[in-house]
Task: inverse folding
């Protein structure tokens, strides 16, 4: 006998495959088509017209063949999703100045949850660990203004506890409340299909039952897909990258992010690979520091152009795709303002580059720098200030910087989920002359007392 198969959807289950094999047994035809979902499987059976059945052992061998084939089509692949940029305005009061308007930028794309799939726009957030979407049971204004997940429409959904455990017989599933910087959500946890483009896996997620008006009602997107390391998620079954890696659908256990501020370029996130066309320099790998799950790396020192300032040895920086700003310790921010002599905006173009030296496992540190226009902002009346918010995280979790979208628009970043490291390359943008990653003079590695072991922004 011989068989030829067209590609199967990655979510085809073993039970469906066995059912297919059983139908082949009962079919005396030499040639027929069998449908699974939206795909067709063509089977050419030779000499089956002489027999009315096949042995159980042979049936299982055939099912195994189909299973192996389906697995083969699910591996060695990558998927890229276009990201949409939105700028949102928030009004807030500052003492002595009255109301001010802040501009928050976010990039988001579309994923699918459930079977049949329900579409949701989400921010791909390296600063959190769980997939959160509004639920149909959520009637707050923040939920009502977005698409909501309807669990009644999903055929294979399962309720789970929010630590990943099964719900005991006769017991109700638990709830979880997550507090963010300016709001909170409450929700229940479920297991269902999660698809990022063609990369699909069964996994756990949070369906909110209540969301605070601030900040969620102002979001242009529906939810958040956390891409921090596994320890940030409720359990491994909640980590989407862990699920995709374990299911074998990705060519490599990595994802990469390219963000552009130009309408002439497509921002995108790629799962399973990196793209050379987005890199204007070599990729420089730096190991993750700490074990709390954030993509944070250690800073060796802060530089003005090529000159070390001895300001923050042993600090760390968290690379966060889910925040629109830059932040740092208030003492360091204050010292930087003093050294840079910020005041009126007349001297901005004469200021040095502000660099952060990071070291990979081999070789000298390299400087990730921001130009004066990238680290300053005009606040009105011809006055400029440093575009770094104050963020004071005490030791051992700090001192800490957070690099959000302004940094990620300049640097193409690659996140290695398996090896816990971040790759940095200068992003290649259309009609822009790219910079290079500067290598600094060899310095002694910081001693053990300078190394910090935990992360920031612990959930309340």
Result:
């Amino acid at each position: 006998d011989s068989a030829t198969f067209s590609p199967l959807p990655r979510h085809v289950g073993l039970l469906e495959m066995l059912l297919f094999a059983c139908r082949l047994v009962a079919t005396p035809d030499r040639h027929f088509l069998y449908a699974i979902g939206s795909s067709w499987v063509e089977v050419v059976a030779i000499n089956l017209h002489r027999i009315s059945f096949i042995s159980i052992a042979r049936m299982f061998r055939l099912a195994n063949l189909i299973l192996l084939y389906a697995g083969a089509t699910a591996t060695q692949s990558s998927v890229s999703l276009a990201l949409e940029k939105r700028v949102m305005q928030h009004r807030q009061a500052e003492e002595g100045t009255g109301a001010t308007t802040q501009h928050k930028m976010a990039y988001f794309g579309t994923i699918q949850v459930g079977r049949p799939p329900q579409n949701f726009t989400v921010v791909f957030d390296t600063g959190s660990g769980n997939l959160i979407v509004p639920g149909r049971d959520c009637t707050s204004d923040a939920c009502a203004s977005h698409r909501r997940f309807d669990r009644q429409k999903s055929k294979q959904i399962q309720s789970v506890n929010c630590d990943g455990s099964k719900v005991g017989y006769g017991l109700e599933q638990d709830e979880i409340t997550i507090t963010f910087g300016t709001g909170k959500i409450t929700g229940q946890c479920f297991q269902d299909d999660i698809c990022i483009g063609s990369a699909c896996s069964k996994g756990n997620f949070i369906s909110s039952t209540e969301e605070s008006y601030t900040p969620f009602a102002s979001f242009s997107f529906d939810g958040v897909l956390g891409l921090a390391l596994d320890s940030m998620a409720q359990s491994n079954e909640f980590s989407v990258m862990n699920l995709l890696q374990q299911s074998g659908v990705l060519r490599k256990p990595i994802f990469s992010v390219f963000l552009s501020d130009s309408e002439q370029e497509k921002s995108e996130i790629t799962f399973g690979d990196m793209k050379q066309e987005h890199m204007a320099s070599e990729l420089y790998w730096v190991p993750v520091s700490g074990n709390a799950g954030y993509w944070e790396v250690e800073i060796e020192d802060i530089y003005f152009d090529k000159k070390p300032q001895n300001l923050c040895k042993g600090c760390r920086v968290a690379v966060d795709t889910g925040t629109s700003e830059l932040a740092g310790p208030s003492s360091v921010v204050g010292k930087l303002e003093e050294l840079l002599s910020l005041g009126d905006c007349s001297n901005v173009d004469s200021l040095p580059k502000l660099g952060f030296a990071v070291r990979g496992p081999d070789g000298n540190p390299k400087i990730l720098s921001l130009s004066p226009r990238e680290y300053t902002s005009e606040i009105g009346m011809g006055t400029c200030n440093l575009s770094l918010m104050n963020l004071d995280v005490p030791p051992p979790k700090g001192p800490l910087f957070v690099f959000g979208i302004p940094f990620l628009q300049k640097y193409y970043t690659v996140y290695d989920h398996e090896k816990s490291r971040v790759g940095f390359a200068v992003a290649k943008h259309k009609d822009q002359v790219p910079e290079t990653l500067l290598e600094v003079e060899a310095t002694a590695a910081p001693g053990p007392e300078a190394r910090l072991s935990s992360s920031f922004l612990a959930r309340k």
The two ends are 62 Å apart (CA to CA). Residues 328 and 401 are 4 Å apart (CA to CA).
